[in-house]
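User: Could you walk me through two proteins back to back? I'd like the raw sequence and the structure tokens for each, with a short line separating them so I can tell where one ends and the next begins.

Assistant: Of course. Protein one, sequence then structure:
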Amino acid sequence: MADFWAAPEDDPRTAGNPDGEKATYQEYLANYRLTIGMKCEGLDADQLARRSVPPSTMSLLGLVRHLAQVENHWFQRVLQGRMDAPRLYKREEDRDWDFTGATPDPAVVADAFATWKAEIARAEEWLDAFDEADLGREVPFDDGGVAPRDVLVHVIEEYARHAGHADLLRECIDGRTGQ
């Protein structure tokens, strides 16, 4: 078990049978968020910023910055209609700033994790107050609309894909694998 993240009895993730659609989305999101955090635990700035394979700019730190941006974009900008708010970790001259700006600087690491956790808290606050009956009600997006249900599934999909990336990145750093 030494190569696993946590002993089964210490794993903070849940596997239940949530009551309702919204609760199901919330449990999946919570578990994937925990998984990303677990993949980053115990690493220093150099390890967190270590890139996968050239020419990729992907790193664990980049994933944290990217997921902060995902949380902000979908929960704040789209679902709450704040499209005029500035995008996190985006630059006009570098569309991949969330990854390319993930440098092995402790201040960059601290900012990324603080921002990610703040965006999660804001998303959770909004979702806790959201009426499950409105999951299919479209909100304006691009030239049409999008239902909160679709956004939630998309964010879960983002986390699921990136948890797989994080698993491989962490394994390359110290051999630890996910469970």
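----
Protein two, same layout:
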Amino acid sequence: MKTASEEVLDLIFLSESSGQTLCAGAELGVFDHLSQGKARAAEELAAEIELDPGLLHRLLLALTSLGLLKETAEGGFTLTERGVFLRSDVVGSLRYLAMLEGGLEYRAIWERVPLSIKDASLCTKVRQLSGSI
């Protein structure tokens, strides 16, 4: 059986859409403003971190669908055991890893790999041809 931390790592690495969702929550500081004990409404949280309440509510629902948050009957949100690992103040935090893996810069690097390999191969061919002249 996997630990909560291992389950979060799976979300980060095994699905681009879940990785992007985690990244958004981490970058916006959602996990740092929630706890396991006290439920908070999207409107309250949105006011605190200066976000649109409707859009934040949608993100909170997406994070809930990933098992990182729990929605209460009153419409508030709390962290699950998994979600705690995305806070910046816990030992073994995965917040920055989620931000790295889901960040635009990281994706941009990998998008360039095929072209870089082609360019390097072309340079090698040019060097080989120029050496034979």
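Strands lie at 40-41, 69-71, 76-79.

Let me know if you want the two compared in more detail.
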